[in-house]
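Hi support team,

I submitted a single chain yesterday and got back a structure, but I'm not sure I'm reading the token output correctly. Could someone confirm the output below corresponds to the sequence I sent? I've pasted both exactly as they appear in my results page.

Thanks,
R.
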Amino acid sequence: MISRFLIRSLSVVLLLSFISTTQVIADDSEKAQHDVPEWLIAGPFNLTLPAWHEVTNITGGTFRAADLLHFQHVDVASLAPVQGDDFFFNQHQRARWTLNNQPTFSAPDSENQFHVYYATTYLRASRWMQATLEVEGAQRFSVYVNGNRVTSKTSVDASDSEKVGNVTHALKLHQGLHTIVVKYMVEKGAENASLKASLKTNEPFNGAAHWQTSPQSPVTLRHLTDAPQPVNVSVSPDGSITAVMMREARPDENTWENWIELLRSDSGERIAVYRGGMQFSGMNWAPSGRIFSYTTRASGKGTIWVVDLDRGTHEPVLRDVNRLGGHTWAPDGSFMIYSISEQFQPDGSGVSRLDGMHDRYPTWRTRSFLYRLNLPSGTRERLTAGVLSTSLNSISPDGKSIVFSRTHIDYSERPFSRAELLLMDLRTLETETLFEAPWVGGAQFSPDGKSLLLTGSPNAFGDVGRIVEGLANDYDSQAYIFDLATRQVRGITRELDRSVMSASWSADGRSVIVAAEDGSHARVFRIDLRNNRITRLNTGVDMASGLNVAARADRAAFIGHGINNPHKVYSIDLRRERTGLLYDPSAEHYRNVFFGTSKDWTFTTEDGTLIDGHVYYPVDFDPSKKYPVIVYYYGGTAPVTRAFSGRYPKELYAANGYLVYILQPSGSTGYGQEFAQRHLNDWGIRVSGEIIQGVEKFLDAHEYADRDRVGAMGASFGGFMTMLLLTETDIFATAVSHAGISNITSYWGEGFWGYLYSSVASANSFPWDAPHIYVDQSPIFRADRVNTPLLLVTGMSDTNVPPGESIQFYTALKLLGKEVEFIQVENQDHHIVDYNKFILWKNSILSWFDRWLKDEPEWWEDMHP
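Hi R., thanks for writing in. Yes, this is the structure output for that exact sequence:
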């Protein structure tokens, strides 16, 4: 368990990529000393004591020189100087950073009593290490590490003193770059006050770290977690403006902040920013003009705001509504459709009857219903009621009707629920059912109002979207056109044979713009409905996510990212089929970061299947050396994409000196329906063999991959694969399983989504008629075969894969005397989203790999004594 003590003591400082303590390490005399060879210096700058500094204040003292030293004149945390850069101390004083190997400081001949210099150096650590930082100087100074003041010297040595005063500070340094800044204050009359600093370590310095005067460094966890990042884009109906929903970490508050930025779609010029501590969500464009809306929430109540850029107004149109949901503009702008949820109130007894498996979900008895808000009058009308929740899909172009959906539970056949799509006449509120089908997602009116664009399973409409014999993988989503007059459905992505992530009508309704998984990529395609011609649009990136298409213009936007390529906003001219970079919000954040290289690597299995994959290389890669390897996979029904960062940032592992091999075994979507179909009723039988083959072939093909230091890692279904693999092979030196499944039967019955996921993964197979899956493929029943050190990690509030799945396997391995550790993350679900816990979780995984693949146990032992 991650104890309260660890969370309390480590959570903040880990955000700064180092841990500092106030005690001095006792055996400094036995440590090797490594002096700072060069500094970047800026100054001197005049300091002025505040008015009435000599007057006794309410604490009984006066404003002293030490108070002036400790005052934050500039944001030290933002300093990343380069030689020759300008440094602005204030609007009247600036200097350039200059290089100096033996800096001395003097007070200029002026009326000011105090002056200040800033001295900066960088320490790049290639591994976790303990050290003692010693700084000496005759005058007052403060020492900052990664923007955090760690120690100070607040007195001035006597002029005839033979010994210059010094301060020491114990550090625990993580891999990556550490910025050390000394704010050095000299008093009037001081001459040639020297500054010296050194680091004392227990190990050879050149092997673990080195000094540098450039902020260039490999990527660190702090880079990945703290970068400003676009999370959603929305293009105005006329295509002229792209709205970007942004998000950025707030480490001191253990949370994230979001805001909205408006950009010109042709140039990226910023038009406006909406930011200020509120939580923005649900941004939508009005159908005409430069008008948009968004929702803010506080204390369970929501308010819809409308912004008119031309009129300069910013007004609420629906205020303080309990449990307010999303909203959508009518095509003529005369009304909105919004939703409100009604929450079930238990009787307080703590005893209740379960109304089916879905009733275990905490929100199942909460119902959502649709309302109409008329503009500008503000009058409202309730549109739906009843037992079942209703969800809006689309409003017709003439504004006279809506399409919405309801979900019916049906335990008689997989997937144990079906979607009902209904049409409502907004004048009479009369409804008619268009169809009922399993596994159907969104529905969107065509521009002429005659058809609906649907997404759903290949099995949703029989053979219409299916190109394989038998059942297809339901997660291999397809796109369909539903004719409202004839009620006929046709599949439009059969020839594309890729898994559809989203689909949108073009402005003229003649084509559909599709974002789809294409192997480990996410790409954009245009499907011409007149001739079924499919054209891939060149996005220029590995991953095009969050695609949004303008309603009345040939313009779209998306968030592009990929291997070693942070998230940026791109705009597509759909008529010319040209893509351009619109906004790079993290350019400054990553300005001094460098990455290793990457390459594709595939292999052919014994049965002739081509297995896709790619490799991340360490930043200082040397083919003459041997490198530890981390193998990462999912093995379930989705590829491990080329996305940048994410829950398992491969760039970070490579920056820590690992070769990272990613492979895409059989069963994954994005490679066609036949490939995805292999997931059904397999549960690792085929996939485990492909992973083992792939690792062996990878090691044979790469001499610099150390076959004695190979680690495996997976999460969710990938965590299951990790457990299963360890019962089948000893090829791995260690492994990590996050939220893995150890007992398929208990996961099937206990997890909120277990029996639903199994309705795909083990379609029409159940524990009572398929023990070869539920028992024989469950790692818990083969735990005695495990010989590999294993780290189990799980959120203790996980409703997807219950923590009991990890607990069972931990119990088995402990009783068997195996090498196993278990990290419990309290109050976290399937995803670790709490900022501080996210940092601890990531560092626990990295330190575990360092322990077993680098023979560097110190970090792990320090985190988890």
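A quick pointer for reading it: The first strand starts at residue 18 and ends at 21. Let us know if anything else looks off.

Best,
Support desk
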